[in-house]
Write a structure and sequence with these properties.
The chain has about 150 residues and is α/β, with parallel strands linked by helices. About 50% of the residues lie in helices and about 10% in strands. The longest helix is centred in the N-terminal third of the chain and has 15 residues. The protein is flat.
Length: about 150
């Protein structure tokens, strides 16, 4: 996975784009490969734990757990989407100074599907032509207890 990632990133650089940081989701195996690439390119890494990477994979594979800790040690920062995952990672041996919770919750009353997308695009200005202005939207499956940051 790391070889493929490095190859793709080299091509991106050959195409004229350089990057400042590597942001990897899922600590295993994705962020492990990203950590190898970050070392190769001399770039900082931010890694995010989403759930099964810690609660299932790391708990059932000592080898994966060691690689996850190696990755967190090399990352500038490691985020988790809830406190329970932060606890697991620290209990595994990760430095508490490296780990922080960034809840990925959303106010479902405020944010909901709209019927008129053209009006929304006009309101948000998504027809932007200025390269300095960017819009990023990400959506993921949400579980209420993750959104609330519960430890169970």
């Amino acid at each position: 996975m790391a070889k493929t990632l490095i190859s793709a990133m080299k091509q991106i650089q050959r195409d004229g784009f350089d990057f400042d940081v590597i942001d990897a989701f899922y600590l295993y195996p994705d962020a492990v490969a990203a950590a190898i690439a970050a070392e190769y390119f001399g770039k900082p890494l931010v890694a995010t734990a989403f759930g099964n990477d810690l609660s299932l994979i790391a708990s059932n594979s000592p080898r994966a757990a060691r690689r996850i800790l190696w990755t967190v040690d090399r990352a500038e920062s490691c985020t988790t989407v809830c406190r329970a995952l932060e606890d697991i990672l620290i209990d595994m041996g990760a430095s508490p100074n490296k780990v922080q919770v960034i809840l990925h919750g959303v106010d479902a009353e405020l944010f909901k599907p709209v019927q008129n997308r053209d009006a929304l695009r006009s309101t948000l200005g998504s027809g932007l032509t200025d390269q300095s202005q960017k819009m990023t939207v990400a959506a993921r499956a949400m579980a209420e207890k993750k959104a609330l940051g519960h430890r169970s």
